[in-house]
Amino acid sequence: MYNFDKIINRRNTNCAKWDTLAAMYGRNDLIHLGVADMDFESPKPILDAFSKVVDHKIFGYTDLNDGFYSSIQRWINKQLGVNIPREWIVFCPRINIASSICVDTLTSPSSSVILNSPAYSPLKEAIVKNNRRLIENSLVIKNGKFTMDFDHLESIVDDDTEMFILCNPDNPSGRVWSRKELEQLVQFCKEKDLILFSDEIHSDLLAEGVKHNSALHFEELYDRLIYANSPTKTFNIPGVIISYMIIPNEELRDKVKKSIDRIGMHNPNIFSVVAVEAAYNHCDDWLMSVKDYVNENEKFVRSFLEENMKEFVVMPREGTYLLWIDYTALGVSEDELRDWFINEAKVELYMATNFGKDGYGYIRMNIAAPRKLLEEALNNMKNVYHKIKHK
């Protein structure tokens, strides 16, 4: 029904994934598996909704309508089994903006904010660019997967700490935090009086057999939390620029809404409202199909690496469409590996330095791409593997 094998040329479209990075490296022969957007067509119901907007031929200011809110309520109930009041929903163009606003609005200038490490870099930037002190909570590997060390967490929190920023599923490691881990984290935040900001943009994109556990499942235990999500990652429409927060606590919600209004972000993009309505009401089948395809891509990549380049060890993926790959068995530096990827294999991946010091020894690979594109990239790597393996 859906053709995810179709390869679409995205070059020369002002594409951040293919054009900007090509300009960065000064070449057009790279296969880009770094930036986290999909190389698939977006779902037809969304495209049809966009066409109706274009056919109207007037692109005026847009307001949020009942359908925007009810679509989010439906989706949250379907995905998480949680019923949320409409007034908890707060519009914001991007989660990166939402995290920055929440840090700036809800914490003191001299305060500290905790973030797991390795981490998606814009979450770190939301802290340091707002002149808050970053406290990194280094994730540890236990039973073959990353987890939070709560004893370490207790040792690094201080009297100036006012917020914990969580990424769930975790980017880059692909962990979906267990219900037990989340409950322990929420209890920790409650005891320390920390606001919990939970970025859950990857939560619809789960590996086979994995169930998502959300911060929203614990709002009755502790309501000083902010849940952030968007259909843009799930349905491959990141260029539309639309996200939302769910904020149960009225005091926090009012402060955040006033900040959004103060900087003039009260009107959404004209395509964003219809995107939310179409995505959250008419694209369930597409999402099931794309998850199946990505899961098969993961099996393909794992099998290929194990057979041909066993020094690349793929960590367990529970969520996201990203693979977190350990290359320490190669015994090479990040600079050597980057040079090999770009100049020998002609493949662009995200290196550890994008995610902080705790990411050292890993690379991140986006597998939401047509299988032939992945196969071409992996064969490129295989054909020049001897040049890096025997260094």
Verbal overview:
The chain has 391 residues and is of the alpha/beta class. It has two domains: 16-42 and 284-385, Aspartate Aminotransferase, domain 1 (Alpha-Beta Complex); 48-282, Type I PLP-dependent aspartate aminotransferase-like (Major domain) (Aspartate Aminotransferase, domain 2), CATH 3.40.640. It contains 14 helices and 15 strands. The longest helix is centred in the C-terminal third of the chain and has 25 residues, at 284-308. The radius of gyration is 21 Å and the shape is globular. The model has no long low-confidence stretch (mean pLDDT 97).
Distance between the termini: 46 Å
Structural class: alpha/beta
* Beta-strand content estimate: 15-25%
Q: Do you know the CATH architecture of the largest domain?
A: 3-Layer(aba) Sandwich
Query: What coarse outline follows from CA principal-axis ratios?
Result: globular
Spatial strand order of the main sheet: 2-10-9-8-7-3-4
The number of E-state strands comes to 15
The radius of gyration over CA amounts to 21 Å
In helices, the fraction of residues equals: 40-55%
